[in-house]
Amino acid sequence: MTVGTWIAGAQGGRQVAGEAGSLWFDEGGGRSVRLMAGVGRRPQASIRSLGLSVYLPTLLFAIGQGAVIPIVVLAAKDLGATAAVAGLIAAMRGIGVLSFDVPAGWLVGRFGEKRAMVAGTLIVAASLAGSALSPSPLVFGVFTLVMGWGWSVWLLARLTYVTDVMPIHQRGRALSALGGINRVGHFIGPLLFAVTEPWLDLDGAYYIHFATVLAATVLLWVLIRDGELGEVQHQSINLFGVVKEHRAVFLTAGVGTMAIQTLRASRQILLPLWADSVGLGAAEVGLIFSISLGMEMVLFMPAGAVMDRFGRKKVAIPCLALMAVGMAILPLTGAFWSISAVGLVMGLGNGLGSGINMTLGADFSPEVGRAQFLGAWRLCGDLGTAGGPLLLAGMTAALTLGGAAIVMGGIGAAGAVMILLRVPETLKRGEGGARAPGAGG
Length: 441
Description:
The chain is 74% helix and 5% strand. By secondary structure, it is mainly α.
């Protein structure tokens, strides 16, 4: 089955007759797929209606993340870890997220988004309490891993819910807003920790995240009604069957999203390393990052509008191309202002891509097996997030830091070409708004 045919079947096939109480869709070629028994599609929402039930919990969660992420290494060293062990413990958070993407898909599909989101926040809360009370680096590392598991469940359940309730012509704005709110939270979190650190020391970051997680849990439990979520049962959905059925999507769009995440993760390491190599101080490096982050934060709403009006590829390709150009020309810089200009170019690309990976995953996801599909989709992106810094380190060792920057730029260019030539546009204009290509109607 081609990618275009798959989208048509999964998102807009023709309803056909079936047994009583069942909903079937005709994929074409004599093939029909049973979507669900006795359950209709859930009501669609507006972006504004997600404000308290999704966006505010997301902001709270992101503030806590922003407070904790920068101090994990320092907390590990305070417990007696060496620099190498502290770096490994910091990596456990990402390993936890990566290793739990697929199990999280099963949990969301089995128990529904509301229960999964609440469970994810409670797992994070327990891991935060354990981290703050850890007596040794080993125990601290275990709780950091568990924290990653909770984050994985929360992120996937949130994505699945927004995908389900938002019509396709509003998904870009809805999901780019999620990406932008994450960025705002990650900006506020370190500032809030800086205010509390004189009284609470490093543990203050965990107290902040614990408080924001509990507040997010209360909001989710109170504001999302039980009848809205978890009605569609997916007990019989086989993950490997879902991946096999949609392997063309993972081998094209999935590779593209992996390239985006590879560049995003590498940028966070490459910029400070290059600035340090030309003699800039920590304060100047921090300012460069602030300038780049500021560019990202002002672009997330325009990025969503472009996705919903002109298409997803109109955002994905410039996102990769601009980050690739920034990395490729970074070795030509040698002063604060030139590196800041490159940081702005990378921030422009990353800001334009706010929410693009989530939106593509949402568009490609099937009605049946959506949570399982999105779990595998998030795994693609997280492989890029985890693999980008490793690849950068390997290329730096084999070549030079400047050579590694050029290689990373080449990966971005290749990803842009992949999306341009092999990935179908998932937003089509038609009567009544946008629709998936090939959708019936």
